[in-house]
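Async update (no meeting this week)

Hi team, since we skipped the sync, here's where things stand on the single-chain job. The sequence we agreed to prioritize is pasted below, unchanged from the tracker. I ran it this morning and attached the output directly underneath so nobody has to dig for it. Comments welcome in thread, and please keep replies under the output.
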Amino acid sequence: MKALVYPHSAELGGSQLNAIQIAAALQARGHEVVTLLDSGALVSRAEAMGLEHIPLPAPRSRPSLQVARLIARLIRKRGFQVVHGFEWPPMFDACLGVWLAGRGVAVGTIMSMSTPDFLPRGLPLTVATEAIRGAAIASGYRRVCLLEPPVDTQSDLPTCDSGDFRSRISVDSDEVLIGVICRLAFDLKLEGLLAACDAVSGQAQSGEKVRLVIVGDGPARAQVQARADLVNARLGRNVVVLVGEMSDPRAAYAATDVMIGQGGSALRSMAFAKPLVVVGEDGFSETLTPESAPLFLEQGWFGLGPGSLGSGAPALQRALSSLVASPARRSELGRFSRSLVEQRFSLTHAAEIVETFYLRALEGPDAAGVAGADARRSALRLFRYKLARKYRQWTGTAASEDWNARAKIAEVYSSSTGAR
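Output:
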C-alpha cells in the first residue's frame, strides 16, 4: 500500500508522535509511507526513523483548501491510496484532498479524549479507548476501530541508560525520584501537575526523601513553575524541579523510581517498568495495579472524580507514599506495567491494526462515500462549530483544546455507558 500520514502538529506530543511511530512501523512492514509535516521538533524525529516528509504550507487555515490541493496533487502524482489524518483538521484536509483527486480513501485517528460531532459519519475512524468508541458509535459514526496509543517497546526499555540525569538535578542516591513527563497544557494536564507538586510537598514535609521532576514545556509552564517555586520556598530546598522539554526523554524515564502520568506518557512509563499513578481531573488519581488495570483498559489512562484513595493532592500523596515506602512494591508493579505494555500496547501490534484498518477502508466505500448529504451535513456542523468557537474566544470562555475539555470527556463516559 501507499499511504500519506498527516499528523496535526509537529510539536512533540502524544498524538503526533504516535502518528510517525505508526508510519515508520508500517514502512517496516513493506508499505510506502510518507508524512506531511509542519516545521517543528517532530521533523528530525521522523527523519531519524527513516521517513520521507513533505513540508506543509504556512501559514494556513485549519482545515485548509491549500493543503487539500497539495494532497490531491500527491495522490495523482505518486499514487497514494490512503490519506490518514490524525485529529480533526487533517481529517478534513484528507477528505477534501481525496475528493479533489477523485480516487483513494481518507481515514482518521482521534487520540483526543472525545470525537468531534462534525466529522462525516461515514469516515473510517480509529479511536483510543473503548469508552470513546462506544460514544462515537452512539453518536452515529459507522466505521470505528479501537487503536490504543502504541508504545515502541523495542526502544523504550527497562534497561535504558539514565546517564547523568539524576546528578544533573542533584538527586541524592537515597532519594526517591518521582517523575512527570508531558506537555504542560491547560486541558487535562494542569490539574494533575499542580496536584503532583502539592502531593510531593506534603511528602517532603512529613519527612519522606522524595524529589519531583517535571519534564516538558507548553502554555501552562508559568503556572506550573509558580507552584514549584511556592513549594520550594516553603520547604527551603528544590523539591520540585522543572527541566523543560527533552527531544528524547528516555534518560528521564529511566532515572525515575515512580511515575505520575496519563495517556501516552503513562503507557511509555510502563514500558520502562515504572510503577505508575494515573491522574486525571476532578481530583482523580489511581495507582496502576492488576486490580485497577481493567478500569484503564476500558476508559483509557485518565479518570474523572475520586479514585479509591479519595481525591485531589491528599489522595495522590497517599498513593505516592505507599510506593515510596516499599521498594519491593515498586519493583512488583513495575514488572506488571512492562508486561501489560508488551501484551497489548506494542507498536508492532498497532501497525497490524492500522494495516488491517487501511485494507478494510480500501475495500469499503471510497471517498465518494463521505460526499453528498454526509459531507454537506459535516460542513454545516463545522461552520457552526467555528462560529461558536470564535464567540467563545471573544468572550474568553474557549477551552484551549475543545476535544480534551472536561465537559466533553464527561459526555464520552456517559454516552459510552449508554451504548453498551
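Quick observations from my side:
Residues 416-420 have pLDDT under 50 and may be disordered.
The first strand starts at residue 2 and ends at 6.
Reply here if anything looks off.
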